[in-house]
Write a structure and sequence with these properties.
106 residues, mainly alpha, Rossmann fold, two-stranded parallel sheet, 3 helices, 2 strands, globular
Length: 106
């Protein structure tokens, strides 16, 4: 798996070299674009949706289907219990741990 490339840097600065950020309104096709790009480039998808991190909100948040999850590696979906407070800082710590651990880094 190709994944995201990591380079040197302090506190995350400059550590990810080839990440693509996809942003847009709800139901605008971001997930389909992400799947296509990840498949064509040997990449992964890292969730940044504030509700899709919660473990029991699959349908309500339109989390990726089992078939979509099988197409490319996905990270940070459904990993937080709904009674747990989760912030941007918590997400950043989680994503930095994935980078530091080499989970999706080439």
């Amino acid at each position: 798996m190709s994944g995201i490339k990591k380079s040197g840097g302090q506190a995350g600065e400059g550590r990810v070299k080839n990440a693509i950020l996809i942003a847009g309104p709800t139901a605008s096709g971001k997930s389909a674009v992400a799947l296509d790009l990840a498949e064509r480039n040997g990449g992964v998808i890292v969730n940044t949706d504030s509700m899709q991190v919660y473990s029991v909100l699959d349908v309500l948040t339109a989390r990726p289907t089992v078939a979509e999850l099988a197409r490319v590696p996905h990270f940070l979906y459904g990993h937080v219990h709904p009674s747990t407070a989760y912030s941007t800082g918590a997400w950043l710590r989680d994503v930095m741990k994935l980078i530091d651990d080499g989970t999706f880094v080439e």
